[in-house]
Amino acid sequence: MTTPDTASSLPMDPPAAASPRRQGHAGDAGSSSNTGHAGHAGNSRKRIRVIDAVILLGALAGVAGIALGLLAPSRAGMAAGVVIAYAGFCAAVIGRHRQRHARAGQLSEARDGATVVAYASQSGFAEQLALQTAQALQDAGVPAQLLSFDQLEAGRLAHCRQALFVVSTTGEGDAPDSASGFARRLTAAAGAGGLGELRYGILALGDRSYANYCAFGHALSAWMQRQHAQALFDMVEVDNGDAGALRHWQNHLSALCGGAEIADWEKPRYADWRLHERRLLNPGSPGAPAFHLALVPAAVGQGAPSWQAGDIAEIGPRLAPSEVARVLAKLSLDGDTAVRCDGASTTLAQALATRIVLPDPHLAALDGVTPQRLVDTLPPLPHREYSIASLPGDGQLDLLVRQTRHDDGRLGLASGWLTAHAQPGAGIALRIRTNRGFHPPADDRPLILIGNGTGLAGLRAHLKARAVAGHHRNWLLFGERTAEHDAFHHVELAAWQANGVLQRLDLVYSRDGGPLRYVQDAVRASAGALREWIEAGAAIYVCGSLKGMAGGVNAALADVLGEEALLRLGEQGRYRRDVY
Ligand SMILES: Cc1cc2nc3c(=O)[nH]c(=O)nc-3n(C[C@H](O)[C@H](O)[C@H](O)COP(=O)(O)OP(=O)(O)OC[C@H]3O[C@@H](n4cnc5c(N)ncnc54)[C@H](O)[C@@H]3O)c2cc1C
Ligand SMILES: Cc1cc2nc3c(=O)[nH]c(=O)nc-3n(C[C@H](O)[C@H](O)[C@H](O)COP(=O)(O)O)c2cc1C
Known about the structure:
Flavodoxin/NO_synth; Rossmann fold; alpha/beta; FMN binding; 580 residues; binds flavin mononucleotide; FNR_nucleotide-bd; EC 1.6.2.4; binds flavin-adenine dinucleotide; 19 strands; Elongation Factor Tu (Ef-tu), domain 3; NADPH--hemoprotein reductase; six-stranded parallel β-sheet; six-stranded antiparallel β-sheet
């Protein structure tokens, strides 16, 4: 599905040979779609190369100046050294600044079918993240165009298929200056419902210590919904530069690029866990295998891990041992060779298991490198996210993982590691990401839980939390394929029904004969009861597939409750989603 290829040779990127991108689109960015801009692109590249040279020369001059200053026998020599060092470092700093501008200039060139990456930034952070976002898409073979909000011309969005917005909030919940005219101009260009063709994602930067947290992001999100633009995923809020939220954004980028392995901007600091139990939940299912996994902390006595219902486990995957053996054989290297990797001593085989492997032709070019150089050259594998299906009080961290299989038969990177390659007892690199947007309600209001497939993971943690809190007004609507093979955790659900934790349970199986029926159909079929629960103050939590389920459920809820009422529930935190 995704075939990494060599990528950009921009100086701040990982080494060119180590940066992956999809082959299928690699040509798009540089060939037909670029023909009208080939001259600009070529000029930008030349400029970047010249700036690279200036930075290098500046840095060398700086170092030479310091050496001269330290070694010169006379005061004049020392002074000359200091001046050369100062000039050299100034050249390097200015070069870096120009380099960023040149790179932004290159990314802002128009490309046919490009994903627009638009930023609204007051002090530069959103701009920097937008630049990284556009660069990551380009490197993965997805053409991108980087624009500031004040460069977004009226009508641009109406003619664009996909856009990513990176926006901060400033003042007292205000839009950054560059975005102040945005809503006015675009509302004039496209009336309500005018962006039905646009798919979009929002990264909202803010700080929880302000009263109007991420207010501009929320205003933009509500406006997009009113324009009937289709959300690619739910808005990602970043509280004070939170690294976990940024990795979540990257995870979405990776999925947008068809699963391209985009190395994490900031690697999670994983803790060591152990695979305690793995059980196939759906033998005989017409769908892909889904597994219940139980993990426990590797070190006994290590501080008890803590999380809440709704939180996410970030998993550091490892390559299959057969893949590591193949790479070692190809490069004629010994897997037992001692190397340093991520600050620790390990073997080459262990280190390689955590690295993005280049496609064969590029791998062959690495023939003859030392084992250490190989480890240093290959970027670390990206993380993957999984909804946590249990509570700390259970003494284990449960996951519900569907095995992904690519068209060529390869298992998915992380789901392959978790469901097939890792053996019971194996170490699992895991970090818990707080997912505030999907935490339980603070009070005992009724809860309507809606989901499908592995989405039961997040909903199960909520039901467990409600059982512990003694809040029994819960209604679960859950969809899978067949009652016979896909009734995940049915014994537990039946027990919750029997003891009153679940007041209502609607199970919908799409392939049990008769017309296809999905969980959104159950929402529509229960319109009256749903309205009653909402009138009684209920909150709605949705977990599971973005494709098909989340959109279908959203449409069904809008039909049953009304579009404006659903928007208001979202604004009040009574409609929350964890969909992927
Ligand atoms: C917040 C969140 C919570 C999640 N919770 C769960 C969970 O509880 N359980 C669970 O099983 N998953 C969950 N996921 C999905 C999970 O993170 C991974 O995306 C999934 O396991 C596949 O990853 P992988 O590394 O195995 O596959 P990869 O090899 O990395 O493939 C990556 C992606 O490429 C896509 N893909 C695969 N084949 C094709 C193809 N032929 N064409 C186009 N695209 C393709 C798939 O969508 C896949 O997700 C969650 C995701 C998010 C963002
Ligand atoms: C003067 C000022 C006002 C801010 N006001 C808000 C606010 O109302 N709400 C919020 O969520 N964040 C607020 N923030 C936090 C910023 O949104 C956050 O720091 C963001 O990362 C800045 O991104 P930028 O550099 O792209 O502008 C404010 C920050 C500053 C400096």
